[in-house]
Every structure is written in structure tokens, then in C-alpha cells.
Amino acid sequence: xxxxxxxxxxxxxxxxxxxxxxxxxxxxxxxxxxxxxxxxxxxxxxxxxxxxxxxxxxxxxxxxxxxxxxxxxxxxxxxxxxxxxxxxxxxxxxxxxxxxxxxxxxxxxxxxxxxxxxxxxxxxxxxxxxxxxxxxxxxxxxxxxxxxxxxxxxxxxxxxxxxxxxxxxxxxxxxxxxxxxxxxxxxxxxxxxxxxxxxx
Length: 200
Prior knowledge:
Blueprint: H1 4-20, H2 27-34, H3 38-42, H4 48-59, H5 62-72, H6 77-93, H7 95-109, H8 113-138, H9 144-166, H10 173-199
């Protein structure tokens, strides 16, 4: 459970981003909105980017939620697949959090080592959770191939998010949704059978 001071900072950061955009969000602005001194912010965070990362992380917690619900509640496979579909639709609609992800990824690529480490840990977590969902939903065994499918799935999600943010509209969402439904209901099932046979 997040402590009250940290939560106050994140809420202030979200509001500041909405009002001023990512570039216009400063530590001083976040501190002022949170009713704290800039020094008090450093008690919780080392930089503006670290705050923005946690804002993004909280907003993009759908994979964590689906994995937890599907594994702990032992839902039926059809329900898990529906949860995955709904979660991916929800992810594409999270404009502010998605913009934050790509802004922070850019900062990481420019050499921000703290963010590089955070993204490495985040993708480890996301990929592990996606793999766990697949193992549960499709009745396959953990292995290098299931992890690779999870990594490719995350890459596909990131790619669709980027296309949505860029508003390229190369393909109408009705068609991409149909492909996603096919993959979740039938495509992955057949694909995992092929992988499992290859590994024997």
C-alpha cells in the first residue's frame, strides 16, 4: 500500500500533467500542487522522471490486474480471454499514461540510467505476467518459447499504442479488434500447440 505522501505527489503530478503537459510539468509545480516543499518531494523521489514513471506505472496496471484475477480467482479460460481482450482495449484508450510511457522511454534511450533500469524491471514483470496468463489460459508449460510469445505480445501492444498515439489510422480498429479476437480465441491455441510439439 502506497503511503499518503507519495500518493499526494502522484495525484498532484497527474493534475499538473493534465494542465501543463509533460514538458510543462516541473518538480516545483508538482510540489506546489501537492502542498509540499521541493525538498519534501526529494524525500520520496529522486527526479521528475521518477515521479512520472510511477504515474505511468499506476495507470498501466491492467496486465498486473488481469494476471492476479485470472490466477488467484481461477477463472474459466473464456473469462480470462475476455479479460485480456477488454484489458487491451482499455490500454489503447489510456492516452495520458501511454504518452508518458513513450516520453519516459525516450528519456531512457537518451541515457537516463535510472529509467533504463525501471523499464527493464517493468518489462520483466509485464512479460512474466503475460506469460503466466498464457500458461493459465491455454494450458501450456512455461518455457523459452512461451516467454518469447509474451515478449512479442508486449511488443505488439506497444506498437498498437504508438500507432494510436500518432493517429496514423492505417487500419480501422474494427479490423484490428477482429484479429485480436481471433488470436485470443483460436490463434494462440494453435500456435502454442505447434510450439509444444516443436519442443518435444
